[in-house]
Amino acid sequence: MAGQFDFLWNTIRERAKLLVNPISYSTFIENLVPVDVVNKKIVLQAESELAALTITKNHLEKLREAVVSADVGLTGVIIVVEGSEEYSLREPPDVTEENTVVLDPRYTFDSFVVGSSNKFVFAAAKSVAENPGENFNPLYIYGGTGLGKTHLMQAIANDISQKKPSLKVIYTTSEKFLNEYVDSMYAKKGAAREGETRFRNRYRNVDVLLIDDIQFWAGKYGVQEAFFHAFNELFSQHKQIVISSDCPAKELTTLEERLRTRFEGGLIADIQPPDVETKIAILKRKALEKKYVVPDEVLAFLVKNSDNNVRTLEGRLNTVIFASKLHEEPISLKLAAAALQEAIGTDEQEEVTPEAIIRATCSYFNTTREDLLGKNKRQEIVRARQVCTYLMCDMLALPLVTVGKLMGGRDHSTVIYARDKIAELMRVNDKVAKDVNDVKSAVLKQ
Questions:
Q1: Residue 258: which of 219, 222, 232 has the closest Cα?
Q2: With contact defined as beta carbons under 8 Å apart, do 91 and 137 qualify?
Q3: Which of 363, 418, 423, 441 could pair covalently with 386 via S-S, beta carbons 3.0-4.6 A apart?
């Protein structure tokens, strides 16, 4: 019975091996047996109640962390012991829910700022929205983090839903699709076949299917197989398919060749980092949406000392607007510089590079480049590595696969885990937030 869950557990176990000390891992974790998946939690059978007690008291959080970082569509762990009342499965039955991703009404073609870096992909997206299934099928959009892929994807969905309400449109993320696939394959008992049929029908009976961030399926061949069959069914009926990724299809080397070939058979359109003029136009629009008029010199200052990530640009603007409200002062160059704790200066800011981030991280955490990018598992080195990965994602408009290569050849899920881990810690831990901001300041001053 356990065999069907082994591929999930093997992936999770590799993560757990990095998080739990070796003695505890070999004594308690290694011998756990996967017996079920319930409500997106993997059910692991321990050898005895004593082993289960030790695991639940000392290692459960690390196991949960391993499950999430393994990126297999699961969210937690349940420990059981055969024949035990204390460690029996008490999880309530699965609840069927409507698996839809709500579209953001703010993501429209009108609110998308068009510049030289994105006018081609913008025109392609509009063409698809006007004649779904007829022009550019599939449309494959790729670009670095924070450049507007999701905005364009949802703009297509919003436009078709509004102007062609008779068409059935599904916009979802690759993570959501993966979770639904796992639920359909590992639903309990007799519901498995019904869940699989429901999943298959949901994604094959649509007029327009948009899936965001396809790169997260790298190496996950079960979900790739499911999408491959849905893709063929939709394509044969001339239904529109739109996909986004953070890198070109040809770089998704752990995606099946037959999928990559189908992506490349449509239109591949990339979003380049915005130029200075486009950045200023984006900030001006964001400011007007917030009902603020920001002087051009302040917009130029915000752009000059920024990376290419539009979300980072908006974050800088929000910081200045908040400072204006807090101090009850009009927005000025002086206020902006003080709010961001940056010198106004007249010299041109050098472009932020991966090497500059690595160098600043090594210096701040007093470690070597070899340890930072290598396999050293000391806690302080791991934290420095996670901070460096976070800053790579935050300050550079690079595909996650490229960040992984720069960080010593690490995979997508490792990059995502490090990025999200630091982002979460910054919200709750002032020391981590200070470390990140200090390293960032050091990068900008190089």
A1: 232
A2: no
A3: 418
Rg of the chain's alpha carbons, rounded to an integer?
Answer: 24
With beta carbons less than 8 A apart as the criterion, state whether 444 and 349 touch. Answer: yes
Mean pLDDT, the chain, rounded, equals 82
Question: Is residue 375 exposed (0-12), middle (13-18) or buried (19+ Cβ within 10 Å)?
Answer: exposed
48-65 pLDDT tens trace: 999 899 998 899 888 988
Structure-block tokens of residue 66: 């391993």
pTM of the model: 0.57
Find, among 116, 139, 135, 137, the residue nearest to 127 by Cα: 135
d(CA 446, CA 433): 20
Q: Which two tokens stand for residue 304?
A: 């000059």
Sequence-distant (≥ 6) Cβ neighbours of residue 319 within 8 angstroms? 339, 340
CB atoms within 10 A of CB 338: 15
Q: Does residue 138 have a cis bond before it (omega within 30 degrees)?
A: yes
What does the alpha-carbon distance between residue 185 and residue 161 come to, in Å, rounded to a whole number? 30
Bridge partners, residue 34, by sequence = 44
In sequence order, the 6+-apart residues with CB closer than 8 A to the CB of 240 are 128, 132, 133, 137, 138, 139, 207, 208, 209, 234
Q: What is the pLDDT of residue 188?
A: 47
The residue written with tokens 């308690």 in the block is 28
Residues 6+ apart with CB under 8 A from 116: 275, 278
How far is Cα 30 from Cα 32, in angstroms, rounded to an integer?
6
Q: Which two tokens stand for residue 18?
A: 């990095």
For CA atoms 158, 159, 160, 165, the dihedral sign is: positive
- φ, ψ of residue 173 in degrees (nearest 5): -100, 160
Give the three-class secondary structure for 264.
Answer: helix
Residue 102 to residue 150: CA distance in whole angstroms: 13
Q: Are 74 and 37 in contact (CB under 8 A)?
A: yes
- Rounded average pLDDT over 375-399: 87
Do 172 and 210 contact (CB within 8 A), yes or no? yes
Phi, psi of 115, rounded to the nearest 5 degrees? -140, -175
